[in-house]
Write a structure and sequence with these properties.
By secondary structure, the chain is an all-alpha fold. Helix content is 80%, strand content 2%. Its main location: membrane.
């Protein structure tokens, strides 16, 4: 009786192992694809922005391009670092017990997820501060990065470890069986800050769009009009992508 069942069990085991191996390869493949697309698109955007920054020396446009470059650079490093860790996790068959015994990798992954998530969101509302000098823009970007680092390090400073999420592919604040007020605070803080940044960006874009429509019908200076329309088109494109990607997760 045992011998009659052995071939079937062996075949099932082989099929299961083959399926798991195939799923692992597909997961790693898609992770690499997403990471590569993000890196290439952001690298292309950086090249275009740097070329435009060298070409245009007007204060308003230079400040705008510097802000845009800061946004793209943080997004680039987010894809590079988070993508590399995700590929490693998939390639290791999500066996966190084997490569994360001291929880260091999960903590680094969680910090990067929070930092590279908040940094681009915080940068969007200050796109409209185009009258700032380059020095002020650099100071503003530095303050944004430091604030995002502080939010990302809050759990570590409070001796709260980042948690492996249900899919076992990434780390973040504790999101399951949240009973402690502090764990709930971190989640609400991240969501509220992100939604606030999106709301302010949306409001700024709405005000700018209305202003440009008025200028279009009143002003005859085509050069200034095209300059501002180029900026608003870029802002609206970034805003649409941000809302589609972030709003469901933040809500």
């Amino acid at each position: 009786m045992n011998s009659s069942k052995s071939p079937g069990l062996a075949g099932f085991g082989i099929l299961k192992n083959t399926t798991c191996h195939t799923e692992k390869k597909i997961s790693v493949f898609f992770s690499i694809i997403f990471m590569t697309v993000g890196i290439l698109s952001n690298s292309l955007a950086i090249a275009i922005l740097m070329k435009a920054y060298q070409r245009f020396r007007q204060k308003s446009k230079a400040s705008f391009l510097l802000l845009a470059s800061g946004l793209v650079v943080t997004d680039l490093f987010g894809h590079l670092i988070n993508g590399a860790i995700a590929v490693f996790v998939y390639a290791s068959d999500k066996d966190w017990i084997r490569f994360n015994q001291s929880n260091i990798l999960c903590s680094v992954f969680g910090i990067c997820m929070v930092f590279f998530g908040l940094c681009p969101l915080f940068t969007k509302p200050i796109f409209h501060s185009t009258k700032m000098t380059s020095k002020h823009v650099k100071m503003m970007l530095t303050m944004v990065c430091l604030f995002a680092v502080l939010i990302a390090l809050l759990p570590i400073l409070r001796f709260r470890a980042y948690q492996i999420q249900a899919s076992r592919t990434w780390c973040f604040y504790k999101t399951e069986h949240v009973e402690d007020w502090e764990d709930r605070f971190y989640l609400l803080l991240f969501s509220c800050l992100g939604l606030l940044a999106l709301a302010i960006s949306f409001l700024c874009n709405a005000v700018t769009g209305i202003t440009l429509l008025r200028v279009k019908f009143k002003s005859q200076q085509r050069q200034g009009r095209s300059h501002h329309f180029e900026m608003i088109i870029q802002l609206l494109a970034i805003m649409c992508v941000s809302c589609i990607c972030w709003s469901p997760f933040l809500v």
